[in-house]
Amino acid sequence: DVPYQRPDAFSERIARNQQFLLKEESHLDKVVDPAGGSYYVETLTVSIAREAWKLFLEVDEKGGFFACVADGSVQDAVNASCIKRHQDVARRKEVLCCSCCCGSEEKGEHALIAKRAATDFEDLRLATEASARRPKVFMLTIGNLAMRLARAQFSTNFFGCAGYEIVDNLGFDTVEDGINAALAQNADVIVLCSSDDEYATLAPEAFRFLDGRAEFVVAGAPACMEDLQKEGITNFVHVRCNVLDTLRAFNAKLLK
């Protein structure tokens, strides 16, 4: 709980109990080297040692660690890795699995970036929580059953990252029925979930009927995307999206 509050007695107890679980249930205290003989662990260890030795020699050739810190090359390398990781998280290429916060934010020309990969998404959710009204996202599911369910699930997870309220549905017979249902629930965003083939007809029809009364989104990147954009449809969510940038744009429009 370090990222958002000061540790208390409960959190310290949980931290201690992790060690007890490793001892009592995984029996890590019964052997000298729990990872000994593990091809997986030993292979990783060798690869880390090999890469570390290359870095060691490079730093040594440049005059040592202090010289590299002084000229900023260490900070540049660490920051480049940090920036890439944040971009990979935003584009769903990397999964968040660690929430540790090591060190403190430095200042100056050669400062290290000390920001966790999860920080940007936490900021999105905190902004939503602080808003006077939590945005509501309505899944307008229609057409092909398998595709509408898959895309509704994807979109639910996508917008859920920002802490929006999600309204899922079993399906509608017409886009008019879906939009009327969404507006009846005061939806801020309506996500059309269907198949690529059906989007060519359904998306323009839904967009025109909605007539700007809520944000309109198409779930997916259909082949007819350029044609839909000519109709005025600009919002698409799909696996190639930068999730962070997309949600920031929606926050800018929806949060008050």
Topology overview:
Layout: H1 9-24, H2 39-61, H3 65-71, H4 73-90, H5 119-130, E1 136-141, H6 145-160, E2 165-167, H7 175-184, E3 189-193, H8 196-210, E4 215-219, H9 225-230, E5 236-237, H10 243-254
Parallel strand pairs: 1-2, 1-3, 3-4, 4-5
Helix pairs in contact: 5-10
Descriptive report:
- It contains ten helices and five strands.
- Helix 5 runs parallel beside helix 10.
- By secondary structure, it is α/β, with parallel strands linked by helices.
- It has a five-stranded parallel beta sheet, sandwiched between helices.
- Residues 99-105 have low confidence and may be disordered.
Overall strand count? 5
Task: Identify low-pLDDT runs.
Answer: 99-105
What's the overall geometry? Answer: elongated
* Average residue pLDDT: 89
How large is the count of helical segments?
A: 10
Helix and strand run = HHHHHEHEHEHEHEH
| Alpha-carbon Rg, integer | 25 Å
Beta-strand percentage range: 5-15%
Helix content: 40-55%
Tell me the major beta sheet.
Answer: 5 strands, parallel
User: What would you call the structural class?
Assistant: alpha/beta
**Widest sheet: strand ordering:** 2-1-3-4-5
Question: Alpha-carbon distance between the termini?
Answer: 28 Å
Which features would summarize this protein structure in a list?
256 residues; five-stranded parallel beta sheet; 53% helix; 8% strand
Brief rundown of the structure:
By secondary structure, this protein is an alpha/beta fold.
